[in-house]
Design goal:
Distance between the termini: 30 Å
Bound molecules: biotin
Number of helices: 6
Structural class: alpha+beta
Radius of gyration: 18 Å
Helix content: 10-25%
Order of helices and strands: HEHEEHEEEEHHHEEEEE
Number of strands: 12
Shape: globular
Strand order of the largest sheet: 1-2-3-7-6-5-4
Strand content: 25-35%
Largest sheet: 7 strands, mixed
Low-confidence stretches: none
Mean pLDDT: 94
Length: about 260
């Protein structure tokens, strides 16, 4: 669907969606017309003048990055490209489950936007609608700081890949990017402190409700290019994926360098 109305990102509109209780966590909100990558920008800031709660959005990314060194398609004005710089306090929580928790936060922000049906999470953190990719999450670290990057497809131009989904298509009409960006940022600001206090366990029941791969036949692609086939059994309390392999043994995978596909 085309973004015919071409509503540009607007600080005041986005800010109006941040609940008062979450405002203290938002230290800076920046919107760029064009940037290399919102994640790269905040990773650089983390090295020179770090500030927890710094949010960066852009209309377009020239070098948008996805997981595993992939490119993230980032055309002007169509989607949401959002990054948040964050510092967990001491005692530092175990970060191995963070990507799972952020996936749940993205889904819950979409629910608050009225999208209740058809959203699923594919381990480690692809957000799917009807089996097609709606959003992607890239979490990176610089010293004590992390950058949480979210790409949410809102309109998608016609040339986009057919296995992608977009919010406007789900809502069957024009939607406001500012509305969904505000809901997303609000959710991150309200639930990263929950992750700080309780870790992944606070998010697991939501995760289980939308686990796309659960009990599916899958193949795990390792960095060595080795493939492991089996049936997905869910995730552990620390965010590893559990696979019952072809020998009937349980294997556990960390999200780092692994990618997963369904097999028929
Ligand atoms: C993936 O599914 O591969 C993760 C995609 C993450 C894309 C977002 S868009 C905002 C932020 N800036 C980037 O360069 N990447 C993330």
């Amino acid at each position: 669907m085309k973004n015919n109305t071409m509503e540009l990102l607007n600080k005041e509109k986005i800010n109006s969606l941040i609940e008062p209780k979450n405002q203290p966590y938002l230290s800076k909100l920046e919107i760029f017309n064009e940037i290399d990558s919102t994640n790269t920008y905040l990773l650089n800031q983390a090295r020179s003048k770090p500030l927890s709660g710094w949010v960066c959005l852009a209309e377009q990314q020239m070098e948008g990055r996805g997981r595993l060194g992939r490119e993230w398609f980032s055309p002007y004005g169509y989607n949401i490209y959002c990054s948040l710089l964050w510092r967990f306090k001491d005692p530092h929580p175990d970060l191995s489950g963070l990507s799972i928790a952020v996936g749940v936060m993205v889904v819950n922000s979409l629910k608050k936007g009225g999208i209740h049906q058809g959203i699923q999470l594919k381990w480690p953190n692809d957000v799917l609608f009807d089996g097609r990719k709606l959003a992607g999450i890239l979490i990176e670290r610089s010293g004590d700081y992390i950058v949480v990057g979210v790409g949410l497809n809102v309109y998608l131009p016609e040339m986009a890949q057919h296995d992608w989904a977009a919010v406007a298509e789900i809502c069957k009409g024009p939607v406001s990017r500012n509305f969904f960006a505000g809901l997303l940022i609000n959710e991150l600001l309200s639930h990263l402190p929950v992750y700080q206090e309780q870790g992944l366990k606070a998010f697991l029941s939501d995760w289980h409700q939308c686990d796309f791969l659960f009990h599916k036949n899958i193949v795990v692609l390792l960095p060595s290019e080795k493939e492991v086939f089996g049936v997905m059994q869910g995730v552990t309390n620390t965010g590893e994926m559990i696979l019952k392999n072809e020998k009937g043994e349980l294997q556990y995978f960390h999200c780092g360098e692994v990618s997963v596909r369904c097999v028929m």
